[in-house]
Amino acid sequence: MHIVTRAFAVLATSAALTLSALPPTQAGTPRATFGDRLGELAQVESAVPLSASPTGAVRKGAVPIETAGGASLALDLPARGVTAKKADGRYHLPGRKGSSLAVTPTSTGTQVLVGIDSAEAPATYDFGLRGDVSPRPAPDGGVDLVGPDGAVVAQVEAPWAVDAAGRQVPTRYELRGSTIRQVVDHRARGVAYPVVADPKVKFCDLGTAVCVKLSKKETKKVHDAMFVSLGAGVSTLCGLIPAKNPAGVAVKAVCAAAVSAYFYKLRGVFKKAKKAGRCVELKFRIVAVAVVGGKVVKC
Question: What pLDDT band is residue 226 in, cutting at 50, 70 and 90?
């Protein structure tokens, strides 16, 4: 669950369960710790000091977050009352049996990771909201957070999950008052542990655009294709966009035309990202004219 604060008192929330990404433990091999797995996750944000983040210290299982407009929001973790230990800039908390949590202060908010190790781990994880916001189902399967005036001030992305073999694991949000419950049906037959879930394609800018974050490997792949030919670059980039939810379908429909129109500008972004060892996030405008922009971001 990655909560991001933005200007104009808009809190854009990239929220999902981010779980472990290592292959299943082999017989006779020491089992990896949750800390080991954090380093294996491609989309984990780098931790920053609390002074450089709108996130406050984790206390008694709650994360305080201040928005750009000065409003405050508290996120109750599925480990309330538990003392957090800080290591490598992250707060680590034990969850219920077979699960654990890590909270990472980032320059734009906070990222919460939950590890699911086995079938004994819970299938539901409750994230409580405290502050002047109310959750409301969003059309894409995510959750909008609505302020007292009825305006959407935050967005929780639609979640997805895959197991260690790359297969999709059903996951969804359920609203229970001011609590967002994430359900991960990881006990289904044939699921390989550990499970990993994290958003890749999301509606952004209050639904007027779609943002796509590429991994470091995907960024390099698109970069190399773009320096082969326009056709190879467009085909490779658009081929990486999963059309598994309304956001993905929307951006898939405009991808080829938008990328072709802004090809050389985007190629420069990918060149900078590869040189810096970073990733690229693309923003496709889906209202009015199809416009695409890109920026270099942390992986």
Answer: very high
Q: With a cut of 80, say whether residue 6 has pLDDT above it.
A: no
Strands 152-156 and 143-146: antiparallel
Q: How, if at all, do strands 152-156 and 11-14 pair?
A: parallel
Q: Tens of pLDDT along 176-200?
A: 999 989 888 889 888 877 775 555 6
Bridge partners (DSSP) listed for residue 87:
90
- Beta-carbon contacts of 156 under 8 Å, excluding residues fewer than 6 positions away, are 1, 13, 15, 135, 138, 142, 143, 144, 145, 173, 180
H or E, element range at 14: strand 11-14
The rounded distance, in Å, linking the Cα atoms of 146 and 137 is 10
CA distances from 140 to 75, 113, 152, 172, 293 (A): 22, 22, 15, 11, 22
Q: How far is CA 97 from the centre of its chain?
A: 24
CB 106 within 8 A of CB 49: no
Burial 48-57 (b: 16+ CB within 10 A, else e): eeeeebbbbe
CB 76 within 8 A of CB 176: no
Closest CA to 104 of 4, 190, 179, 201: 4
